[in-house]
Amino acid sequence: MSRQVFLYDPPDRFVAGTVGLPGRRTFFLQATAGGRVTSVALEKTQVAALAERMDELLDEVVRRTGGSALVPAVPPVENSDTAPLETPIEEEFRVGTMALAWDGEEQRMIVEAQALVELEADSEEDLAEAEERLLQDEENGPPMLRVRLTGAQARAFAKRALDVVNAGRPPCPLCSLPLDPEGHVCPRQNGYRRGA
Q: Tell me: the pLDDT tens digits for 75-85?
């Protein structure tokens, strides 16, 4: 079976979003263009890491080009997107591996998200080799979402993604663990229940 690549070059919209209540949210990356919609599920930590690394890479591009790259320092207001995810949300796959790159000639951020794949091997070395072969296999590798963004689109994506990650449950002022609506057992209070 050949590898399925969901290519958006460029997308009309590329956002991170969630479904569900804080504490039980499912995170998605969603790309849309020309009536097509691709949604892939991932972990909250993956969304946060992607947004942080994207901002860092954009800052590095600006630094290395002396500001000549078409990358804004902050997300432009016209690229701001607070709309919910497009529905119905149909998960194409769960993300395992992500990659970021900057195409200097085209002035584009390339985001790749590949499906999570279970591999079995006899040793760590065999597992590492199997993973590398699978990820490099353009013909039969795991499904992949590939999105090419302008600098402005990438900045806007990173801001929204971090806002989505930080919109969860508020932290306990004593222990920094997330507070559920019904409270939580705070370790700094010797196990006494602390209200929200």
A: 888 888 889 99
Task: For residue range 101-129, list pLDDT tens digits in order.
Answer: 999 899 999 999 999 887 676 777 876 77
Please state, as a whole number, how many other Cβ atoms lie within 10 Å of the Cβ of residue 64.
12
pLDDT of amino acid 1: 54
The rounded distance, in Å, linking the Cα atoms of 42 and 28 is 6
Query: What b/e readout covers 144-173, taking b as 16+ CB neighbours within 10 angstroms?
Result: bbbbbbbbbbbbbbbbbbbebbeeebeebe
- Assign 139 to helix, strand or coil: coil
Nearest to 169 by CA among 42, 51, 20, 15: 20
Among residues 69, 30, 86, the alpha carbon closest in space to that of 152 is found at 69
CA angle centred on 159, ends 41 and 22, rounded to 5°: 50
The pTM of the full predicted model, rounded to 2 decimals, is: 0.82
Residue 29's H or E segment, with its range, is strand 26-33
Confidence of residue 12 (pLDDT cuts 50, 70, 90): very high
Tokens matching residue 6: 């969901």
DSSP of 70-127, one letter per residue?
A: S--SS--GGG---PPPPSS--EEEEEEEEEEEEETTTTEEEEEEEE------SSHHHH
